Amino acid sequence: MVEETDLEKLEYLDMVVKETLRLHPVAPLLLPHESMEDCTINGFHIPKKSRILINARAIGRDPNAWTDANKFLPERFVGNDIDIRGRNFQLIPFGSGRRGCPGLQLGLTVVRLVVAHLVHCFDWELPNDMLPTELDMTEEFGITIPRAKHLLAIPTYRLQLQ
Ligand code: HEM
């Protein structure tokens, strides 16, 4: 079985999780922030006490920051250290800075461990010979952004039953 201590060696899994959160950040607009002072960003004046929404989903799909921005390509993270912890502003599914997500480590560990177990223990098939490209990936917009239609996939246990 995959253990938590194995996770640091599972580099491709890490890339898959990053790529998933790039295209499908759980909270597309993060949480609302408020400016503490007047400031100017890229020529835009932002008065003190403005409500600020950061569109992390649009940033994650920005063609100026990403090649083939709308494609799911975990390999794009090979050979670079683009990180998911708020240091690289083109990838901020946990926000950034002092009000970034304090549950980042726990969240990432649980997601990686659950996905690792699902992949290690089961072979997966889509029903009715459906191709992965035919999956309906429509999202339901809100504070979080779940799939509009549930994913239906068929697992077959692939480890030796004792
Ligand atoms: C994959 C899992 C998770 C994702 C993607 C996620 C994402 C986020 C995001 C985007 C924010 C807003 C950051 C911002 O506006 O700059 C946030 C805030 C927060 N998250 Fe998470 N989170 C996850 C798991 C967790 C867990 C496991 C906990 C607690 C055990 C947690 C607790 C919080 C709290 C308390 C805040 C508010 C922080 C503040 O306002 O100072 N999160 N999270």
From TrEMBL:
<dbReference type="GO" id="GO:0005506">
    <property type="term" value="F:iron ion binding"/>
</dbReference>
<feature type="binding site" description="axial binding residue">
    <location>
        <position position="101"/>
    </location>
    <ligand>
        <name>heme</name>
    </ligand>
</feature>
<keyword id="KW-0472">Membrane</keyword>
<dbReference type="GO" id="GO:0016020">
    <property type="term" value="C:membrane"/>
</dbReference>
<keyword id="KW-0503">Monooxygenase</keyword>
<dbReference type="GO" id="GO:0016705">
    <property type="term" value="F:oxidoreductase activity, acting on paired donors, with incorporation or reduction of molecular oxygen"/>
</dbReference>
<dbReference type="InterPro" id="IPR036396">
    <property type="entry name" value="Cyt_P450_sf"/>
</dbReference>
<keyword id="KW-0560">Oxidoreductase</keyword>
<keyword id="KW-0349">Heme</keyword>
<keyword id="KW-0408">Iron</keyword>
<dbReference type="GO" id="GO:0020037">
    <property type="term" value="F:heme binding"/>
</dbReference>
<dbReference type="InterPro" id="IPR017972">
    <property type="entry name" value="Cyt_P450_CS"/>
</dbReference>
<dbReference type="InterPro" id="IPR002401">
    <property type="entry name" value="Cyt_P450_E_grp-I"/>
</dbReference>
<dbReference type="GO" id="GO:0004497">
    <property type="term" value="F:monooxygenase activity"/>
</dbReference>
<dbReference type="Pfam" id="PF00067">
    <property type="entry name" value="p450"/>
</dbReference>
<dbReference type="InterPro" id="IPR001128">
    <property type="entry name" value="Cyt_P450"/>
</dbReference>
<protein>
    <recommendedName>
        <fullName>Cytochrome P450</fullName>
    </recommendedName>
</protein>
<comment type="similarity">
    <text>Belongs to the cytochrome P450 family.</text>
</comment>
<keyword id="KW-0479">Metal-binding</keyword>
